[in-house]
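Title: Prediction job returns without error message
Component: structure pipeline
Severity: low
Priority: P3
Assignee: unassigned

Description:
Job completed but the reporter wants confirmation the result is attached to the right record. Sequence as submitted:
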Amino acid sequence: MWQYQAPLRDMRFVLEHWLQAPAAWSELPAFAEVDLPLALQVLEEAARFSSGVLAPLNASGDRQGCRWQDGEVSTPEGFAAAYRAFMEGGWPALACAPEHGGQGLPQLLDAALQEMLYASNHAWAMYTGIAHGAYLCLQAHAPQPLKERYLPAIVSGESLPTMCLTEPQAGSDVGLLRCRAEPQDDGTYRLSGSKLLISGGEHDLTDGILHLVLARLPEAPAGTRGISLFLVPKRLDDGRRNAVRCDGIEHKMGIKGSATCSLSFDGAQGWLIGEANRGLAALFVMMNSARLHVGLQGLGHAEAAWQNAADYARERRQMRAPSRPEGVAAAPADPIHYHPAMRLALLRLRTVSQGLRAIGYWGAHLLDQAEHAVLEAERQQAARLAGLLTPVIKAFSTDQGFHLASEALQVFGGYGYISEYAIEQTLRDSRIAMIYEGSNEIQANDLLLRKVLDDGGVALEELLAVFEQETAAGGAYAEQLSALGAKLRVLVKGIFNQTEGDAEFPYRIAGDFLHLLGWALLAYAWARSARLANALLANDPWYQEKLDGATFFFSYLMPESDLRIARINVARATLGFLA
């Protein structure tokens, strides 16, 4: 009862028109040979793999889950074969550098691939999702011998990395971790300690598992300033198994086909990545990519929920609708998509999903520009905007993914609560994305305190300048976007002032501020979409959907921004403490 087809037409609209990516690529030497036909070919092949190979394994993987026995983990039936097909298709190499065996394509195309993977089979995609971030981390910080040894293995798919941060006493507060690393005479380190909630910590997709582990050196400073990053392979170069053991797997609410492992390091051999006691700085290269990918998980869930709810609503007949389109004959019962409540739900699903796609792909496009733009000033500005957008994409998209999946389940009524219809799996799978890779509350604090207040508002002003460029181009919604930008400026000035006498204030409003910026980004996405679609409509009636989406957004969803502004204004009163 569950299906997924990649929304290739909307993806093309975002790449070709909304981002104007082919024109931007032509100005970047690294992507000078990448054009629209090549990009579309990549997306079409990714769509075939996602819908043809991964989607059929989604429900069965959920039913079977993973199995642990004596330190070994077996993934659901078909997962290992799907991974071999993934490797043979060259997908791990998509956005990696040619010097390491990669295809050298933009991260933007990788973002589109990730959306398809997560929409079709979130649990399976957990095994591959961290690979590109780990590749970037090692590329930036690993010693040259380690780069030569392990980067080609990641690019080929022979090795799959993990991120080992969490310990029983150290979740969001990584400064509390206790895992130890003892230096050896040969320049290696011996790691001892336990990690838990490690996605893909053990599995049967490939024997090459590379653990990126946060640990403390002897006499390291307390807190986050005393954390170092280490590479610990499952197997050493001589074939021996390293002293890393999977002690068990978690039985979870969702993504049951993803092995979430507890690992013990008992003097495991590892190598230092980056500088001693600066492991978090090295890891942040990986985290930016990881958080963008988690945001794309939210987008994938929203898109899959929309597709399945829309299909069901066209087939399910209940009662007579109070109105129906002209030319549709009366019937004892109408498809429920004629009922206003269902139309509102379906329009919200479609409109938010398409807006999230534009913003998520923009984040990936900014990462490409931050790395490859010719001028240093352009690279720095792109990096600032990407840094500002990343926590919003991660938190706002995953929040919407979960709540839209819930709204889609409501379209199914009682059947939605039954596993046969699979929308309940989408709801269960989507919930974790709001928690891992930095909970959404931490993302909100990062956005307001670090990316806005500590930055002095520079990156936010650059974002508002982008909004102003769009309003200057005209369009039906330029005035509303301009008014929202003005409200943001006034609000942020007030936040700066209030924070001077109330240090807790930004923490109280951080969640509302992140959601406000999320709705503002969607307003920008839809104002731009409407303007571009209006110019293209004469040659293709498909663009009417974009104009309808913009009308719905600014009529029904735009008021969400006023709600968040009101909540921020009333939060000037301090919170009481619970007894």
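Comment from assignee: result matches the submitted record. The chain has 18 helices and nine strands.
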